[in-house]
Amino acid sequence: MDIAEIAVSDYVEVDADERLAKVRSLFERENPKGVIVTDDGEYAGVVTQKKLVQSHVADDAKVGAMMQSAPRVERTADVREVARVLVEGGTKIAPVFEAGRLWGIVTEDAILRAVLEHLDAITVGQIYTEDVIAVDEDTHVGQAINLLREHGVSRLPVLDDEGLLSGMVTTYDIVDIVVRDMDKATVGERAGDIDRVLDLPVYDVMNSPVATVTTDETVDAAVERMLDNDFAGLVVTPADDDRVVEGILTKTDVLRALTYTEEEHMDVQITNITLLDTISRDDVRRSIEEVVDKYKQMQVRHAHVRFHEHKEKLRGTPLIQCQIRLRTNEGQVAGSGEGYGAEPAFNVALDKLQRNVLEIKHLRSDEEYRGQLLRKLGEL
């Protein structure tokens, strides 16, 4: 299936020299998935709502200061490949080109609607993310913003004093009350207002109750719920208690599942692939395969590698955080690390991944030995 039927020529467009205040007002009024930025009529990039939270750029700055590159796709591109580039580019929108000219856009939601009927064979338990970044009810809004930036996520489950699900705080929830006020403030009393906003507990801005899903539900039902209610994600809980957080299912998780392949080599997906410098996708795949080969019983269905760039630099090289997550028949296994440049960060994360893989191997060996011992004792 290609995207010719789901790409649209109707999209929101602004010039790179336009004031940033215009884009913020567009998000407030229309809540688009993203905005196309042009320069002298030519495509230049996109601006997303997540980017607004990740920046303190003032309203009178130009839009070009906040735009990011997004993967260009052809109008006849395959849906699976477009899903891959959206995930790896960390965006929900891609510009669509035809005969070398900008024709329109394709969005995350459009792809999910197009493949919805094919998702009934997959369960939430097969693709959801187990590692969840959560906050307490008394976590300050400023701390929540830092977590959103640091982990590159758009939502944070909120837990009460007993560790049970209480609410959800999202990028959308805090854009208006934080970013807009921060950009308008300068000094004096107004600056004091900013501090008070950042010191608010997330309890005051979170959404409640929270939409949940269980691991045994089919993905098509979960995606339909997200599309119908304009949710970007659902909290995954046990069937018998919808306040115990087991994980989270996002639209990105579903897009990632669409890219799974049946090729001979491992399927590896890289988020923020543009940060790769001295290593390639094949280098990353081969390195992960070497680690997995040390434990033959582990069947890896999919590997996800995420790079995130920090502002800190060493002799011009940015500090990079790398997270590796394997989805296997033994559950999810992960490793993370930091370094100056993508390759050092990946190597640190790979080392931690290897330790975790070997730990699983040793635990399995211990279980097998214990089973053998019990059988022998039973024969006495």
What topology does this entry show?
Blueprint: E1 13-15, H1 20-30, E2 35-39, E3 42-47, H2 49-53, E4 73-74, H3 79-89, E5 93-98, E6 101-107, H4 108-115, H5 124-127, E7 135-136, H6 141-151, E8 155-159, E9 165-170, H7 171-184, H8 188-198, E10 212-214, H9 219-229, E11 233-237, E12 247-250, H10 251-258, E13 268-271, H11 281-292, E14 300-314, E15 317-328, E16 331-340, H12 342-379
Helix pairs in contact: 3-10, 4-10, 7-8, 11-12
The largest beta-sheet arranges its strands as 13-14-15-16
CATH architecture of the largest domain: Roll
Tally of structural domains: 3
In CATH, what is the class of the largest domain? Alpha Beta
The termini sit apart by 63 Å
Structural class: alpha/beta
Number of strands: 16
**Helix-strand topology string:** EHEEHEHEEHHEHEEHHEHEEHEHEEEH
Report the mean per-residue pLDDT as an integer: 82
Report the biggest beta sheet as strand number plus sense, adding barrel if it closes.
Answer: 4 strands, mixed
Residue ranges: pLDDT <50 for 5 or more in a row?
A: 185-191, 365-380
The quaternary structure here is single chain
Q: Assign the CATH superfamily of the largest domain.
A: CBS-domain
Q: What does the overall shape look like?
A: globular
What is the number of helices? 12
Say what the CATH topology of the largest domain is: CBS-domain
Strand proportion: 25-35%
> Considering DSSP H and I runs of 4 or more, what fraction of the residues is helical?
25-40%
Q: From the alpha carbons, calculate the radius of gyration and give it in angstroms.
A: 22 Å
